[in-house]
Amino acid sequence: MQHQQLIPHLFRSEYRKIVSVLAKRFGFDHLATAEDIASDTFLTAAQTWALKGLPENPTAWLYHVAANKAKNHVQRDLLFKGKISKDIQHELSTAGGIPPDDTVDLSPQSIDDSQLQMMFAICHPSISPEAQIGLSLRILCGFGIDEIADAFLTNRETINKRLFRARERLREEKIPIELPSPADIDSRLETVLTTIYLLFNEGYYSISNDTTLRKDFCLEAIRLCHMLTDNPSTDKPPVNALLALMCFHASRFEARIDSKGEIVLYDDQDTSLWNAELIGRGAHYLHRSTNTDRLSRYHLEATIAFWSTQKTDSHEKWENILQLYNRLLQFHYTPIAALNRTYALAKANGNRAAIGEAEKLRLTDNHFYFALLGELYTDIDHSRALEHFRQALTLAKTPADRHAIQRKIDQF
Amino acid sequence: MLIFRHEDGTKIASPEQMQIWMKQTMDWIGGIAAQNKFVVGNGLPMDDSRIVWHNNVVTNGPFGEIKETIGGYIIVRADTIDEAVGFAKGCPILQGDGNSVEVRKIASKDGGH
């Protein structure tokens, strides 16, 4: 691979590792410095490799250069300001100079530990979910500012501001980069899992046109969750359940977007495009998640997602899905779950029973609500069905949604 | 709070019938939860229950043999008592003659309702 292709590839996989290790070393006071050093390392790589060709081990080269830049930065900072954190100063004065590879430990163990600790630090309850996702995309996943801006349909400036404020907050709150204590780990994991799930959904349901990028977001969310299952202290039942849930959803990547980039509805998907390997992995993690008597929302959602990977249209399937939604809604209400529950109710108990339940939901600003009512009234009351679909059309926000609803109307 | 008063179903119905009632109850609660009006709920099985009386006298029971026995409860978020009554009317236990759902307010912490 030539360096022009290799550098973006390495940036994606190595930037986050270097930042995590450096930030762990310097603390959040110097997060921006850690990011600058990491970026600068790649700039140096681009210049040097263009002149001298690729080094034998590009990753090791990057780590070495990053470690040197970090060392130089610390020394400069000490000389001119003399005020980086006291413990580093102390270490330096007692060691009488910095041993070349002791300052920054870029061993595989240190990288894994730093990234996991960084995940808990970024997903701290004191910063907003939006900021957590932004920082996660940048620092844990190594996405560029342009890519993040594209995913959120906004511009560089907005994202830079958002990340700046989030870094400030982490600094002000003096959030340590470390794993929470065993007593706190379950509650802190909840926030981490929420962020990972939001990151996944950002990719899965985003209205950005860049399908490759959206898929990358989902794969990154799965990778972060894998980091948690790989570590014994965070390999907990809800983590496995979330991983299973994401694997099941991701199995439909190829089937749910057509060649023009438009969403293909579940009922219209070519099931031969469903990824059997991901379904199998999902089943594996779902099985691993059952080692508990405390079910999380992810257990219920993963089990629903499991049923969605079953191609049959049996009563058993819909009855199971209905009961899972009944339970999910009892401890985690969302409008979309309420609508999906009503769809399952129609499949299990019939459309007439579901219409009454649907009308109680009163989600009158939601186009899915009217699309569902339109669906339920089809074959029962022709004009009402059409009326609901038309209402849905006026509320739909994306071209893909409008297109799907228009197709329904055209069938009348 | 909706309090269910009914006989112990396990004594008068087949397991199949119990399963049907269970599904109806779950669908009813799911319907309330789908409106974001559900707070919490529990079934109160009759087996291994005790009554503690004045002077700490303990007896077995209740046995669920009368229709006034409390078999469970749910707490809902309702703006008015009528809204809560509306939820209660859908409760499957009301299929049994003599069974009832008692609708009660929960005193809020500041002493109001």
Describe it for me?
The complex is a heterodimer of chains A (412) and B (113). Chain A is mostly helical and 412 residues long. Among the domains of chain A are: 1-97, no CATH class; 312-412, Serine Threonine Protein Phosphatase 5, Tetratricopeptide repeat, CATH 1.25.40. Chain A has helices spanning 3-26, 31-52, 58-80, 86-95, 108-122, 129-140, 145-151, 156-172, 185-205, 211-230, 237-250, 253-256, 276-289, 297-308, 315-331, 335-349, 351-361, 367-377, 382-395, 399-410. The longest helix of chain A is centred in the N-terminal third of the chain and has 24 residues, at 3-26. The termini of chain A are far apart. The mean pLDDT of chain B is 91. In chain B, strands 2-5-1-6 form a four-stranded antiparallel beta sheet, with helices on one face. A two-stranded antiparallel ribbon of chain B has the order 3-4. Helices cover 29% and strands 24% of the residues of chain B. Chain B is an alpha+beta fold and 113 residues long. Chain B contains three helices and six strands, in the order βααββββαβ. Chain A binds chain B through residues 319, 322-323, 325-327, 329-330, 333, 337-338, 341-342, 345, 349, 357, 360-362, and chain B through 23, 26-27, 29-31, 33-36, 38, 41.
In short, what is this structure?
The complex is a heterodimer of chains A (412) and B (113). Chain A has 412 residues and is mainly alpha-helical.
Task: Report, as a whole number of angstroms, the end-to-end distance of chain A.
Answer: 55 Å
Helical residue percent of chain B?
25-40%
**Biggest β-sheet description of chain A:** none
The CATH topology name of the domain at 312-412 in chain A reads Serine Threonine Protein Phosphatase 5, Tetratricopeptide repeat
Distance between the termini of chain B: 12 Å
Order of helices and strands of chain B: EHHEEEEHE
Instruction: Report the total helices of chain A.
Output: 20
The helix-and-strand class of chain A reads: mainly alpha
Q: Approximately what portion of the residues of chain B adopt beta-strand conformation? A: 15-25%
CATH level-four homologous superfamily name of chain B: Dimeric alpha+beta barrel
Strand content of chain A: under 5%
In CATH terms, what is the architecture of the domain at 312-412 in chain A? Alpha Horseshoe
Q: How big is the Rg of chain A?
A: 25 Å
List unreliable stretches of 5+ residues of chain A. 93-102
Rg of chain B, Cα atoms, Å: 15 Å
CATH topology of chain B: Alpha-Beta Plaits
Number of domains of chain B: 1
Shape annotation of chain A: elongated
